[in-house]
Amino acid sequence: MDSNQALDDLKTIRQIMDRTQKAAGGNGGWFMVIAGVMWIVGFTGNQFLSDEHAGWVWAVANVGGILAMIWVGMRLARDSGMSTPMWKPAFLFWIALGVFSGLLIWLFHVNGVNRVGLLILLVAAMGFVQIGALFQHWLIGVTGILIAVLTIGAFLLFPAYFGLSMAILGGGLLVASGLWMIRSGR
Amino acid sequence: MSALNSLIHQPTRLRVMAALVSLDAGEKVDFKFLRDLLELTDGNLSVHLYKLEEAKYVTVEKVFVERRPKTWIWATTGGRDAFAAHVDALEAIVGQARL
Questions:
Q1: Hey, of B20, B32, B33, which one would you mutate to test binding to chain A, going by the most A CBs within 10 A of its CB?
Q2: Does A157 score more than 70 pLDDT?
Q3: pLDDT grade, residue A186 (50/70/90)?
Q4: Is the pLDDT of residue A127 over 80?
Q5: Which residue among A77, A165, B14, B71 is least crowded, i.e. fewest CB within 10 A of its CB?
């Protein structure tokens, strides 16, 4: 084999690998879009409704979001033509983080909508950074860091508009990152 | 220096292996996904998969999902190693020509 043929083969290999990654990747973006919609709905409720009503909005958003994620996961497993062992551990990881957040709120008697929101968002941001590191996915990791920065910034600088800030900035960031992942296949 | 692998060297099998090794360990694709990705016919892909399976470079698993047949395919560890060695050999040829 001469060097030109070898070079052509190496180029073909690179192209096929890129195409495969693009075709196979990006599915995780759907889960980020759903999480973003949950945040937009929930935090908008925090901003404009009483604590009791906002709690109900969060309950509906959480249940609806989790059901939507399960449905999307099942559809992807059936139709995407790709199977990855990562979905179940990732799903369980988020459930564990949710329980962890609940325990922290209960054990440390965290009071006030903003403080509870701050704690949950920082735990979620930590989760995104960990998932990003685990899957070696820079966008998810960067999204987590940005969420942490935005959350602390909004909590300190705009406490009166914390819910609205997190709906637009936090939820919007998740939706935008998710759509970018779906579009780019990364 | 690694030698070229005559089984993987064939253009279609080279593309099949490139697609499969680009997935993470534990990930697998179904037959239709691979066929459409590589723009091959059912028969052509089947023939080459059979040869790769015979060499234990890939695993082909036929299952039923919601009563529909589905064929999962993934690269074995041996297949990944053989492909890596083949790529090393290609790079060595290119490298030598540049000297």
A1: B33
A2: yes
A3: low
A4: yes
A5: A77
Check B29 against A82: CB less than 8 A apart: yes
Report yes or no on B27 lying in a domain.
Answer: yes
Chain B: nearest CA to A96, how far in angstroms?
23
Predicted confidence at residue A25, as pLDDT, reads: 66
Pinpoint the alpha helices (H) of A25-80. 28-48, 51-79
- Whether the predicted interface score ipTM is above 0.95: no
How many domains does the structure of chain B reveal? 1
Question: Could you tell me if residue B1 is inside a domain?
Answer: no
- Tell me which residue range forms the domain holding B87: 6-98
Closest to B94 (Cβ–Cβ): which among A3, A12, A80?
A: A3
CA–CA distance, A146 with A125 (Å, rounded to integer): 8
Q: Is residue B76 part of a domain?
A: yes
- CB A29, CB A175: distance < 8 Å: no
B62 or B1: which carries more pLDDT confidence?
B62
Q: Inform me whether the C-beta atom of residue B15 falls under 8 Å from chain A C-beta atoms.
A: yes
Three-state DSSP at A165 gives: helix
Q: Which of A3, A13, A83 sits opposite B18 (nearest CB)?
A: A13
How distant, in Å, are the alpha carbons of A66, B46, B58, B83 from that of B52? 41, 10, 6, 11
Asked if B72 has any chain A CB less than 8 Å from its own CB, the reply is: yes
Q: Is B80 on the interface with A (CB under 8 A)?
A: no
pTM (2 d.p.): 0.70
Closest CB from B19, B90, B98 relative to A9: B90
What is the spatial distance between Cα A140 and Cα A146, in angstroms, rounded to a whole number?
10
